[in-house]
Amino acid sequence: MKKSPVCFQTFIFWLFLSLCIPFSASAQQAGEQSYKDVSAMPDGVVGERIQAVIDAVNANKAEAVASFIKKNCTVEFQDMAPMEVHANVFLSIFQSTGGIHFHSIRAYVPEREETVVSPLPIKSPCTIC
Predict the structure, then answer these.
(1) Do 100 and 57 meet the contact criterion of CB atoms below 8 Å apart?
(2) C-alpha pair distances (Å), 17 with each of 4, 8, 10, 105, 112
(3) Are the CB atoms for 98 and 120 separated by under 8 Å?
(4) Does residue 125 fall inside a structural domain?
(5) Are 17 and 86 in contact (CB under 8 A)?
(6) Domain region containing 60
(7) Is the previous residue joined to 5 through a cis bond, with omega within 30 degrees of 0?
(8) 117, part of any domain
(9) What is the pLDDT of residues 20-78, one digit of tens each?
(10) Is residue 49 a part of any domain in this protein?
(11) Is 89 among the domain residues?
């Protein structure tokens, strides 16, 4: 059975994003989870990597994605799919959102961190349902 290229592209993007952010492998506890958003971009390599992903998405150019992948990803990740597939993931995110920006690092209890991005503000007066 042939896999959908869109599903594969989405999987590759979220896999890469999840590998960029350090996390704790603690077991999930039963009950309601709480979280705290820290809206400051992290310092160091983590912050640089987050900004690089955002810049590659917002560039909306295959060349920017290729440059990002070559500078920030391992050879194994680069070889997981043709560069065209990597580029299509980033381009489809831009087409779906109109661009993204950093929102926060979300820290959960039990301990787990995620990076939260949100679509850029809509420039035309329209309602999204």
Answers:
(1) yes
(2) 20, 14, 11, 13, 14
(3) yes
(4) no
(5) no
(6) 5-23+43-99
(7) no
(8) no
(9) 555 544 444 555 668 889 999 999 999 999 999 999 999 999 999 999 999 999 999 99
(10) yes
(11) yes
Name 110's Cβ contacts closer than 8 Å, sequence gap at least 6.
26, 27, 28, 29, 33
Mean pLDDT of 90-110: 90
- In the chain, how many domains are there? 1
Residue 100 in tokens: 């993204």
pTM check: above 0.70: no
Give me 91's structure tokens: 């381009």
The vertex-45 CA angle with 42 and 48, nearest 5°, equals 70
Tokens for 120, please give them.
């850029």
